[in-house]
Amino acid sequence: MDLFMKNDTxxxxxxxxxxxxxxxxxxxxxxxxxxxxxxxxxxxxxQIEGHTVLPPQSKSTKYEHVLPQLVNVEENPNIKGLLVxxxxxxGDVEAGLAIAEMINSxxxxxxxxxxxxxxxxxxxxxxxxKYSFISPTATMTIHPIRMNGLVIGVPQTFAYFxxxxxRILNFITRNSNISKxxxxxxxxxxxxxxxxxxxxxxxxxxxxxxxxxSVGGICDAINKLKDLIRDANA
Length: 234
Hints:
globular; two-stranded antiparallel sheet; 2-enoyl-CoA Hydratase, Chain A, domain 1; 6-stranded parallel beta sheet; alpha/beta
């Protein structure tokens, strides 16, 4: 009887997939050897989800998941710097701006890298770090804020939109080298193929306008972050 139970237990264990098997099955990759780093990497991808839950088929970044991670970055003494990688179409304005303010208020060195796209509310997120990069083919869309669903058609609603827009513009100009006047000009252009108005910037254009600090990739972003960490600990 004991032998039967022992064999049965062994069979149960053999049927349970290991973590490595799960990684290969679900993520399609083989996990690298264990590595301890003092850099915390945060990805902001897809659509930024706020107070309204997005459909399950949407790729999203939930702000209630991101905020505790940022608190951990600030409090954890083993984390020396934060790398933010963005490929986002935008999303909830309040949630995106809240994340941007949290990143901006971290006392440790922070670097962002825009790959693919950093559109709409992704623009404040891209400039929220102490230094920012954009890959050569990445794009950034600057346009006025929009709202879907029921809108009360009263003057106060438009005043609220204006205040919200000013909050975003002030945050971007405070954390980049672009002027508020130039940012408004880009935001209100009507000669590009967007929904109604706005401007699409590609790689180097964002740097030339002072929105992003440098064109680069993951190597440049990590090296810059290490330099900032070294300077902070000097």
